[in-house]
Amino acid sequence: MSASTITPQAPLRVGPLQAARHGLALAGRGITKIRKTPVQLVDVILTPVVFLLMFVYLFGGAIGGGDLDAYLQTIVPGIMVMTVFQASIGIGVSLNTDASTGVFDRFRSMPIARSAPLVGAVLADLIRYLVSLAVLLALATVMGYRVETTPLALLVAVPLLVAFGLSFSWISVFLGMLVKTPGSVQGIMTILVLPLTFASNVFVPSQTMPGWLQTWSEVNPVSLMSETLRGLMNGGAVAGPLLGSLLWMAGVVAVFFPLAMRAYRRNAG
User: What's the number of CA atoms in the CB half-sphere (13 Å) around residue 123?
Assistant: First the structure.
């Protein structure tokens, strides 16, 4: 049956738990797509590998004062944050592609919560985050990185980081529903992600930056989450940067989830 012959149903009113079940069901669809076309994971696997090797072995001597081991301990948690942040670009591109195929018309004809297609797509992106983090941590371990606290701290850090990525992915979802082409989504998200990443303490300490940039770096969500992971994995303060990270996450979801849903409803017609 073509998308043009599908009769949309009235929006289904469901409770939060039922909406969550619908979202999980559609997350399975996204995971199946990744399993059938694992080439989708190439970017999230290669990007952290290239950045880690490049910054440690090309720039680490200059940035870290010649102590590559110390610089490795500092940069790995930061690149973990950068990895999930950049991985969030893919979901907007994927949803924008889906919109052009008429798949949202099919979703509208199904007795599911209106939020389920977007929530399902976001939850399916969990696989991208976990794969990229696993590859990054495996390489970092080979290069000499060690968690200096406890394995439990790492088990806390990874879900926290995934939640950070899922929260910021709503920006990408919103753009995926708003702009016309997948290339536009990728371009706009790249313009957003790169300045946030490089104007942070991922690669260099904030104290080495000019005053105005240092001020921004200290409240940058990428910096705050990097400091949180460093505290959890290397030892140090956690409460302050964690609170800042959680505030950013809550704010982004509060703003961009409703914007994404509004754009989805408009997109779906």
Answer: 17
Q: Find where tokens 């790492």 sit.
A: 154
d(CA 15, CA 107): 18
* Torsion, Cα of 61, 62, 64, 68 (10° steps): -10
- State pLDDT tens for residues 103-157: 766 776 676 777 777 888 888 888 888 989 999 999 999 999 999 999 899 999 9
Predicted TM-score (pTM) of the model is 0.85
**How far apart are the two ends of the chain, measured CA to CA in Å?**
18
Question: Which tens digits make up the pLDDT trace of 12-56?
Answer: 566 667 777 777 777 777 777 777 777 777 888 898 899 999 999
247 token code pair: 């505030």
In the chain, the amino acid numbered 7 is: T
- Cα 177 from Cα 202, distance rounded (Å): 30
CA-CA distance, 84 to 194, in Å (whole number)?
Answer: 13
Structure tokens at 249: 């996450």
d(Cα 69, Cα 76) in Å, to the nearest integer?
11
Helices (H) and strands (E) counted in the chain, each on its own, are 13, 0
